[in-house]
Amino acid sequence: MTSLSQSEPLPQPKEWIEAIHAYVPGKSTGDDGKPLIKLSANENPLGSSALALAARTQGAATDPSLYPDPDSTMLRDAIGALHGLDPARIVCGTGSGELLTIAASAFAGPGDEVVYVRYGFSLYEIAARRCGATPVVAPDNFYATDVDALLACITDATRVVYLANPNNPTGTLTSRADLARLHAALPSQVLLVIDQAYAEYVAATDEDGALDLARDHGNVLVTRTFAKAYGLAGDRVGWGYGSAHVTGLLNRLRGPFNVGLTAQAAALAALADQEFVTRSAAHNALWRDWFTTEVGQLGNHGVTVVPSHANFVLVLFEGSLSAEAAFNALMKAGYIVRWPKGQGLGHALRITIGHEADMRAIAAVLRDLVAA
């Protein structure tokens, strides 16, 4: 076999591709490769619905020689029935990440701008740069979305605005009134993408009205995922809802046969098990609130928690105890959490809500660290 000549020219990417930093997933092992209890990726500690697991061994999912339904028809029908939406305006993706990414590709390109809030989901910058658009970062308001700051960033070049609600990695929530105010002030040619990956964890009284906006307006796309409350992170299933104009364009860009046979079957069964989703949300609310209260008692030591509406909390370390020291201590105790220093949050740890024993153990580690 001959080796590649050092002088042979190679295919060169567009300059905007070289500016992309690859998405960094949550770690599952320590620096020594030892497996740890993983609270770095916001996975469901209760696992998956028994109905979803059973669906993997029944029906069409047992014959991998067949292509899946390219349009995920039965799944879209079930999503529409559950949420009172027109299935024709629903599009399914390989996780919501595929839909978030191609939303930028459908509407933006070189010379255009994509706007999102500081400390927003890191995929938004990748989506903007992937299509050659310019990412524009709006200032936050104590780790939360500042609607006025977002609106101040809108120019004639703006094509897409991303807003995660609840936001990842901060857990903050934009209210129904503020979301409606943001949309009302946007030019109609700007697409508002509302990323609701954690919507099932939001209390009914705090529901943000995003699906109503998408139902009534042609420039709103709402995305959701089966990865979190439904416990199907490994199957990579997501969905989006918007006008026929928006979802029609996404259908042109999404991968063919993008949601596999097993994934469609599991997601369809998971939708039928809303008791599992309710139980997951209740477990999360109980231990998120407990953990927030426990860590809140460390405020005199500079350790505080950003109020969260998701299945994780962002813990700030602004005293003598650093996030790095806490991260390493938790690894030593057998836990891996997310240290989002690449997002300008080197002073924080994002901690997924796990089992009761996990949350009690992590709280104890933090108490011991500040007492040392």
Please provide a written account of the structure:
The chain is of the alpha/beta class and 372 residues long. Helices cover 36% and strands 17% of the residues. It is built from 13 helices and 14 strands. It has a seven-stranded mixed β-sheet, sandwiched between helices. It has a three-stranded antiparallel β-sheet with strand order 11-12-14, covered by helices on one side. Strand 5 (140-141) and strand 6 form a beta hairpin. Helix 3 (73-83) packs parallel to helix 10, helix 4 runs parallel beside helix 5 and helix 11 (274-296) packs parallel to helix 13 (356-371). The protein is globular and about 60 Å long. The chain starts with 14 loop residues before the first helix and ends with a helix. Belongs to the class-II pyridoxal-phosphate-dependent aminotransferase family. Histidinol-phosphate aminotransferase subfamily.
Give me the count of strands. Answer: 14
- Rg, Cα atoms, Å: 21 Å
Tell me the structural class. alpha/beta
Main pleated sheet? 7 strands, mixed
Shape: globular
Overall helicity: 25-40%
Strand content: 15-25%
Alpha carbon gap, first and last residue: 60 Å
Count of helix runs = 13
Average of per-residue pLDDT values: 93
The helix/strand order is HEHHEHEHEEEHEHEHEEHHHEEHEEH
If strands are numbered along the chain, what order do they take across the biggest sheet?
2-10-9-8-7-3-4
Uncertain residue ranges: none
GO molecular function, one term: transaminase activity
Domain Aminotransferase class I/classII large: 35-363
Subunit structure: Homodimer.
Protein name: Histidinol-phosphate aminotransferase
